[in-house]
Design goal:
mainly beta; disordered N terminus; 2 domains; 10-stranded mixed beta sheet; 16 strands; single chain; disordered C terminus; two-stranded antiparallel sheet; 262 residues; Cation-dependent Mannose-6-phosphate Receptor, Chain A
């Protein structure tokens, strides 16, 4: 849908835009749709309850707005569980496929379009001053219906109380539909861990794919990164370069903050 430049500037000035967060939650942003939970910045975020994973309601799991053309656009969403299917939506949406995370609906005309898939969803966040999330985002997977590719996201601004869901459609990025809400993001932060290892003292240079001590070099951690031989250990729930560690992928498998299920 084309938007005029004037309309885009007006929306931007009004603060409507809310771009997705960029820091990956644990496990490289991978999101388990069955549990609907993700570990982000030492906090377990319960998307299952926040975003209609347990039960779907057309009245509750929806964000509405009036687009610049004067049409009402509704966005149904279900960010966990089995996702949306046509039978859960208004009659004109009955032909929708299953496993959807978001559906775009025009109540005036009855137009209904798959906006994003649930499988492949990723979780990201932005850290606040204490390292815990100030906001978290679920970015859904693209849906390709053969003629159009669409996707969308839900951004949660972490707060003490829950607001209603709002949207500005795809005015931020064309064919990438946005839903926003303020809500409590989860439990307490993980306890602090030991400080990262500084690596062995001295200066190092990369020689034949190994870090060798010598004049005019750099600290070991910098050399290891440049030389492609970095090894990692888990410190404070983060994989950091350390000379006595293992591969980054092995570190990421075990480097997770402890959580208590509620």
């Amino acid at each position: 849908m084309l938007r005029s430049v004037a309309c885009l500037l007006l929306l931007e000035a009004a603060g409507v835009y809310s771009k997705p967060d960029k820091t990956n939650c644990n496990n490289g942003a991978a999101y388990d749709t069955s549990t609907g939970k993700a570990s982000c910045g030492g906090v377990q975020v319960d998307f299952f309850n926040l975003l209609c994973g347990a039960t779907f309601s057309q009245q509750r799991c929806i964000a509405k707005w009036t687009n610049p053309g004067g049409q009402e656009e509704d966005y149904f969403f279900m960010a966990a569980g089995s996702g949306l299917s046509g039978s859960m939506l208004p009659t004109s949406c009955n032909a929708m496929p299953s496993g959807l995370a978001m559906v775009q609906y025009y109540p005036g005309s009855g137009g209904c379009y798959p906006a994003a898939d649930l499988a492949g969803t990723q979780a990201t966040y932005t850290a606040g001053s204490d390292g815990t999330p100030s906001s978290v985002t679920l970015t859904f997977a693209e849906h390709d219906d053969g003629s159009n590719v669409r996707d969308g996201y839900v951004k949660i601004t972490c707060g003490q109380t829950t607001s209603g869901f709002t949207t500005s459609g795809d005015t931020n990025v064309q064919a990438k539909y946005e839903v926003d809400v303020t809500a409590p993001c989860g439990g307490p932060p993980a306890p602090p861990g030991p400080s990262p290892s500084p690596g062995p003292p001295g200066n190092y240079r990369c020689v034949n794919n190994t870090c060798q001590e010598g004049d005019g070099g750099s600290p070991y951690n910098n050399c290891a990164d440049m030389c492609g031989v970095a090894t990692y250990r888990c410190y404070n729930n983060t994989c950091v370069v350390a000379p006595d560690g293992g591969s980054k992928s092995d570190c990421q498998k075990v480097c997770r903050p402890p959580f208590t299920e509620k």
